[in-house]
Amino acid sequence: MRLTRRGTLVALATLGAFVAGATFGARALNAVAAPSLVAFAYAVVVVWRTDQPRVERLIPPAGHPGETRRMQFNVATSGTAELTDRLPAGLRPRSHTTPLLGDDHVEYDVEYARRGAHAVGPLTIRITDPLGLVARRFRYENDKEVLVYPAVTAITDGGALAGLVDQSGMPDRQAFDRLREYAPGDPLRDVNWKTTAKYGNLVVTEYAAEDQGAVTVVGEATPDGTGDNADAMADAVASIVTYLLDVGIEVEVAVPGGELPAGVGDRQRQAALDLLARTPPGQVGTDAIANADVHVVAEGETTVEVRGADVRYADLVGGRGVTA
Amino acid sequence: MNVVDRDVGRFGPRLVATFAIVVLTATYLSVLYETVDIAGGLDLFVPVVAGAFLGGLVLGRFLPDSLALPLALVIAVGGALLYVPSIPNGELLLSRLDLVVEDILALLTGLSILKIINAGVWATAFAPVPVFLSWFFVGRRRYSLAALVGVAALVFLILTSDAGVILGLFGVLAAATAVGVGDVDLRGGRLADADGVAMVVAAMVVLTVSVSLVPGGASQPLLRDTGGNADTIEASLTGTSGEISIQGSISLSPDVRFRVDADEGQYWKVASYDRYTGDGWVRTAPVRSFDGTQSGPDGPTRELEQTVTAETDLSVMPAAWKATRVSGEDADVTGFGGIQPAEPLGPDERYDVVSELSTATPDQLRAAGDDYEDVDVEKYTRLPESTPQQLTEYTTVLTSNANNSYDTARIVETHLEQKPYSLDVDRPSGDVAYSFLTEMEAGYCTYYATTMVSMLRSQGIPARFVTGYTPGQEVDGEYVVRGLNAHAWVEVYFPGYGWQTFDPTPSGPRQATEQDSLDTARSEGESGVDVPGSTPTPTPEPTATPEPTAAPTPGENGTASTPSDGANGSGGETPPGGVGDIGGLDPAGGDGSVPTTTGGGDGGFALPSPSREETALGTIVFLGVAAAARRSGATSRAYRAVWLRRQPRTDDPVHDIERAHERMEYLLARERRPRRTGETPRRYLRSLGDRDAMRVGDIYERAVYAGRTDEAAADEAVDRVDALVKKYRRF
């Protein structure tokens, strides 16, 4: 429990009234001093008796840098209060303060500034008396975080990745390879009914691409203290992965923050973005590099090595800004 | 809820906060208005304040916060440009910042703004600054800043001792309301959310008022009372404040103050006052140290040598008008030519004074004319602008036969001497002079002198109010002067002859009263009442003067009335400016008077019965209590209690039965047990085993589900529920 700025001012004025009265005569200073003391006494009792307010924070969903979402709170308290929320560097604003009155719902806009898993808070609620002289602070640590994905840039010049698209794990059902006998585990849709009818045994069609496996995208970044390299790497990996998944290729990801087994579709993209949002800079294991179809390295400049051929990431995205 | 209610809910806090700032502004403006009323300049004051108010409010809506202070500064500079040229040597003031600081310090430590030169212009220059600033902030909805500005202005006027306790309290309450309710407004709350503010403001009223009402407590209980509040004539005489407020009933102090060794008895003058406030007097003259001589009055004079010996502590320097030479003690002199000791005198300290007494004859004075170029005629003929016009008319009619100032003064003096004399009067609430002339049946010297000055001033004759002592008792060529000899009279200015003394107080009754007081003191054996030889031989009772040598122990007994009380209390070092409260100065000797009622200055919280202030404070307390009741849920509980016990009947039996059933369910749920979910009402009632309840349940089901009912059934249901309530809840 402490004095607010306003309370300090009133306290000084009250003290001044006593001093002035004692030194130069009371005059009507009692009219100032007595009500002030009453106000302080009332304030201390009211603030002291207030229970800790209950706060519920509604975390906004994950998003990409530059997007704006709403942070929301439900607060159960009484009287006048003030809510101050602090946000980490990757989110804007860095702090937000809202006056409250009784039970209240608070919301404010948060801009996602930078990739990362940002732990929000701490949240403080400052209870004051009705005149705002005395305040008491309640602090709420928060284990919730706001996830900001890497910036995904559309790959405009897919030439360098064309080979991957042609040869990799796209289940191209036109590329017939051969027929073979059915083995348990083969999908029913691969059964070649025509031939089966002819031979009496189940025969399945094997397509050319099916065995080629997933494209492995590996990202590495040199630690630079600011995290810019990691961001650049995550952006590049996310853009490439998104591109590959969009054309239907099965993708596997390995970055310093972890590995994502092969998969396809939206769910895989979501998982990849989650992983890339959190990944720190660093190296991956040599096995992963050996298996890499695409190897992204960010060390000031971001280079992409596609099956041994070096490409500048900037070229892949058509020269558009590579966000740091 | 209709539209109006919703609007009140939304704009209510804003209205209340704005109203609170209105009240706060009114508190300090009322003080400034009063000043302007007394010192002149109302024509300019009103438009200036109105302009500042509107300008602030309108500009505040459009301009940013950061412009508030620069604009206020512009207004302040404008005010200074208005004020500085209006005072003598104003340019000097601009170049001497130390003088300005000195003046401000003097104001902050209790110098009334009424004593400022050209106080009216000063107030007109000062007022627009806080008014503009606070209403600028109201326009910006920055209520706490607006309140801060208002309170600062108010506190300044409290420090200058111009704003009283009640006014200050109202201002502070208004500021607290503005801050608290303003916060609610800024949070988008409703008026109901400001209940906490109502409670704390009510607590302020209750506690501040009740603390001050402690019996015997000083009027300002929380702060040490170090001066100004002279409650005896003696204390007021030795006050250093340079102002006097007229009081109600007073008594006389018989203690000996000083002895004057002189060839003749004169009125021993102490101080003169020029500015009349409607309820008191203020001296606006500066004090400087006396270099030993000053010129005597114009016209023919004669010298009178006096040796004055203090019998008690004395912070004034009584002498016949006009003292031209002082020796024996360091003295100060006021701008009016009056003398004061540089340091208060102790018992047996003495000083020699040579006075030049004017010997102008009535005929000379009649012929003096009215060429007042040697005197500040504006200062000595000013009356508060609120002075009733009837005072002028009355005096004009009364003195229509006089064709010169001297005759006018004599007529007024003679007229006032017809008025009965009494120390036991109630202080009038309005203008003292007019009240004394019309309503009051009697009064004492202060009233006579004040009234005479006012009447003369209404005729354009320069006059001032003077305090001092009557000659006293002559003992062996010395004049023994007691507290009860304190007096107030009048000086009128005549070109070529200076200030001439007039005394409108009837002397016969005055002396009789003084003698009574002295006799009583002697008969009660008080010491300090006499000096050797001053006791009349035929003493009524032999025990009257137990100590013939009373002089060595003066003041020991005279409890409240020794001059030292007042002098010590307020710091005796300050130069004895003038007579403190005029009330103290009784006619002839009223020195020791103890006012039995403080008429109503800043006396404190002795609220007169149902005054406007009391009503307002009562309303505030009521609102606070209502808010507390609401917050604690007492109101809804009270409503429930009444709802449960009283069922108004309607024409619709079904409605009545439903209501009765509702009451029964509420009652049973609290007194027995609530109905469980899934339990049918019928089973619930049966399980409670109450015949009345089961019967009401039957009636209810039949009425609601079968639609078969009549008035008789409704009567029965209501009666049975009433019986149930009586059974379970009797208190």
Task: Describe this entry's structure for a reader.
The complex is a heterodimer of chains A (324) and B (731). With 324 residues, chain A is of the alpha+beta class. Chain A folds into three domains: 1-148, Sandwich (Immunoglobulin-like); 159-170 and 213-316, Rossmann fold (3-Layer(aba) Sandwich), CATH 3.40.50; 176-207, no CATH class. In chain A, 31% of the residues lie in helices and 33% in strands. In chain A, the strands form five sheets. A six-stranded mixed beta sheet of chain A has the order 16-15-14-17-18-19. Chain A has a five-stranded antiparallel beta sheet with strand order 1-10-9-4-6. The radius of gyration of chain A is 31 Å and the shape is elongated. The mean pLDDT of chain A is 85. Chain B is elongated, with a radius of gyration of 35 Å. In chain B, a hairpin with a 4-residue loop joins strand 9 and strand 10. The two termini of chain B are 35 Å apart. Chain B has three domains: 3-208, no CATH class; 221-601, no CATH class; 634-728, no CATH class. Chain B has 731 residues and is α+β, with helices and mostly antiparallel strands. Chain B is built from 25 helices and 16 strands. In chain B, the strands form four sheets. Chain B has a six-stranded antiparallel beta sheet with strand order 8-11-7-2-14-13, with no helix packed on it. Chain B has a four-stranded antiparallel beta sheet with strand order 3-12-15-16. The longest helix of chain B is centred in the N-terminal third of the chain and has 37 residues, at 3-39. Chain A: Keywords: Membrane, Transmembrane, Transmembrane helix. Chain A: This is DUF58 domain-containing protein. Chain A: Residues 179-290 form the DUF58 domain. Chain A: The chain crosses the membrane at residues 31-48. Chain A: Pfam families: DUF58 (PF01882).
